[in-house]
């Protein structure tokens, strides 16, 4: 069997065992300097404009479905001004484009692999059949194509798709193979939320560059990736009108956790999470996102006079405030009419079905400083031929998921289903985790309890840590629904 070292060419550097320690998750005001710094000069914050992400256009809308053609290819793009950086892309876009879909209307994507490595495309958060899930071993090689069909028989949600080829997924996603998939439903479209140019997808991530301005990939390089990118540009600015905006936030990082706030302490209204809209909006001054988590947030800039500049800050390390604390800046440049509003009720969730099975899941990894740490799910590294959990189709279960590590954070992602969180560390979850979820953070020693219903497809799927460097190390397991 191919190994992580053989696939990555032995690219496990000095930081390979540098796990995300407690020093990496303290507030930035007391964070230590990162172990590695950029070798290329990154521009000062807020000197480049944040682009809006291009929207994919279908090549056909016949037959009651939308068909897209996507080519995966390596291209050079300007991330740092004046520097061409090689990235892996869908259709040449970095970050990946936005695909807008509708619940109840299927989407078909024909992917052409023009890269030099096998790939697998996973619609993260999608309720899809096993053959369309993009499993870790269900890859297609260079020079070949694969068609994925997404029925979109689920509620509207901010999903995304990314490479999932085992042992390669972390490097491929780090180098750019991810894109946003915004699924809307009739309920969402009936609400008077900000729309059109005032609904802005933002993909957040971190990166590390060498002296030539090329991306540096070292597995588990949590201290080296100290340039924050918003829609592919380093700490950019974004011009807004003095009115409400809806921001579809995605943490597309491999490893980095974000804790976001406005520099003036201003309020944000969170209206949704991974699985779509919450039942009710809530007002907050901070948004937390572990890798792969999404947040649907409304910010009302009408409270600021034209000329105001407000920074979206990150308050978590690793890294210093100067390195990773400034995510992007909103520049209020004009007035605008605003017919939008945030209703008091956004959607209604059905009552949870009675759970017939309870399971305990434990995430862990080596944290003893070894050169090539291993990741474990219930004490075992992933084996694609082993079925770890067998589930009866049509049933609901409660899973208690624990991070057994003392210094390493994780999160937990389950394919196929959107689950509901019941508890965090024995207490009710906060409003930001009260909706439908597919990814949940687990800081060291934390435990969450979730409720999942398996009433759509039968077959084999995976669950894993979505710190992708960890899942590439083996922190993944299989469940089979039958």
Give your account of this protein's structure:
- The chain is mainly beta and 482 residues long.
- The chain folds into 3 domains: 128 residues, Cupredoxins -  blue copper proteins (Immunoglobulin-like, Sandwich); 140 residues, Immunoglobulin-like (Sandwich), CATH 2.60.40; 125 residues, Cupredoxins -  blue copper proteins (Immunoglobulin-like, Sandwich), CATH 2.60.40.
- The protein is 5% helix and 40% strand.
- It has 5 helices and 31 strands.
- The strands form 6 sheets. The protein has a 7-stranded mixed sheet, with no helix packed on it.
- The chain is globular.
- The N terminus is likely disordered.
Quick description:
The chain has five helices and 31 strands. The chain is mainly beta.
Question: How are the SSEs ordered, and which strands pair?
Answer:
Elements: H1 4-7, E1 66-78, E2 84-90, E3 98-102, E4 107-113, E5 121-124, E6 145-150, E7 157-163, H2 169-174, E8 178-184, H3 186-190, E9 199-207, E10 227-230, E11 233-234, E12 237-242, E13 244-251, E14 258-262, E15 268-273, E16 276-284, E17 287-289, E18 294-300, E19 309-314, H4 321-324, E20 326-335, E21 357-365, E22 375-377, E23 389-391, E24 395-403, E25 410-414, E26 419-424, E27 436-437, E28 439-442, E29 447-454, E30 459-464, H5 468-472, E31 476-481
Parallel strand pairs: 1-4, 3-8, 9-13, 12-20, 21-24, 23-31
Antiparallel strand pairs: 1-2, 4-6, 5-7, 7-8, 9-10, 10-11, 13-18, 14-17, 14-19, 15-16, 15-18, 19-20, 21-22, 24-29, 25-28, 25-30, 26-27, 26-29, 30-31
Number of helices: 5
Q: Assess the beta-strand content as a share of residues.
A: 35-45%
Q: Report the sheet with the most strands, covering strand number, pairing sense and barrel closure.
A: 7 strands, mixed
The count of β-strands is 31
Form type: globular
CATH homology-level superfamily of the largest domain: Cupredoxins -  blue copper proteins
Computed structural class = mainly beta
Strand order in the sheet with the most strands: 11-10-9-13-18-15-16
Average of the residue pLDDT scores: 92
Measured on Cα atoms, how large is the radius of gyration? Answer: 21 Å
> How helix-rich are the residues, as a percent range?
under 10%
Question: Ends: how far apart?
Answer: 28 Å
CATH topology of the largest domain: Immunoglobulin-like
CATH architecture of the largest domain: Sandwich
* Domain count: 3
Q: Regarding CATH, which class of the largest domain?
A: Mainly Beta
Q: Residue ranges: pLDDT <50 for 5 or more in a row? A: 1-24, 26-36
């Amino acid at each position: 069997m191919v190994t992580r070292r053989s696939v990555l060419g032995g690219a496990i550097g000095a930081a390979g065992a540098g796990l995300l320690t407690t020093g990496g998750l303290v507030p930035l005001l007391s964070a230590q300097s990162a172990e590695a710094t950029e070798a290329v000069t990154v521009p000062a914050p807020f000197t480049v404009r944040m682009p809006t992400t291009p929207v994919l256009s279908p090549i056909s809308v016949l037959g009651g479905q939308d068909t897209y053609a996507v080519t995966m290819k390596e291209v050079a793009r300007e991330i740092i001004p004046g520097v061409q950086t090689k990235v892996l892309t869908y259709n040449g876009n970095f970050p990946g484009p936005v695909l807008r879909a509708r619940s109840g209307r299927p989407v078909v994507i024909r992917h052409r692999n023009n890269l030099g490595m096998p790939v697998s495309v996973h619609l993260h958060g999608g309720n899809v059949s096993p053959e369309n899930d993009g499993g870790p071993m269900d890859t297609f090689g260079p020079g070949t194509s694969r068609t994925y069909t997404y029925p979109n028989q689920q509620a509207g949600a901010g999903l995304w798709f990314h490479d999932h080829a085992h042992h390669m997924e972390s490097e491929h996603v780090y180098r750019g193979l991810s894109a946003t998939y915004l699924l809307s439903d009739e309920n969402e479209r009936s609400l008077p939320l900000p729309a059109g140019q005032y609904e802005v997808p933002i993909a957040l991530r971190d990166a590390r560059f060498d002296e030539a301005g090329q991306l540096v990939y070292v597995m588990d390089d949590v201290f080296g990736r100290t340039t924050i990118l918003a829609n592919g540009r380093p700490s950019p600015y974004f011009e807004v009108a003095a009115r409400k905006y809806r921001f579809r936030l995605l943490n597309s990082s491999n490893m980095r956790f974000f804790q976001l706030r406005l520099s003036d302490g201003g309020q944000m209204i969170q209206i949704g999470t991974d699985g779509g809209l919450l039942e009710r909006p809530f007002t907050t001054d901070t948004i937390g996102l572990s890798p792969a988590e999404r947040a649907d947030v409304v910010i009302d800039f009408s409270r600021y006079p034209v000329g105001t500049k407000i920074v979206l800050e990150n308050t978590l390390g690793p890294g210093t405030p100067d390195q990773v604390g400034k995510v992007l800046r909103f520049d209020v440049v004009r007035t605008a009419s605003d017919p939008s509003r945030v209703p008091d009720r956004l959607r209604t969730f059905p009552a949870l079905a009675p759970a017939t099975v309870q399971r305990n899941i434990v995430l862990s990894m080596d944290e003893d400083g070894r050169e090539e740490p291993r990741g474990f799910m219930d004490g075992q590294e992933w084996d694609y031929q082993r079925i770890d959990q067998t589930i009866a189709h049509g049933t609901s279960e409660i899973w208690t998921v624990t991070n057994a590590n003392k210094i390493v954070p994780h999160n937990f992602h389950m394919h196929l289903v959107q689950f509901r969180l019941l508890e965090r560390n024995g207490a009710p979850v906060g409003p930001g985790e009260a909706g439908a979820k597919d990814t949940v953070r687990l800081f060291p020693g934390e435990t969450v309890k979730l409720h999942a219903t398996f009433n759509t497809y039968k077959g084999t799927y995976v669950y894993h840590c979505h710190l992708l460097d960890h899942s590439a190390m083996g922190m993944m397991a299989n469940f089979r629904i039958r």
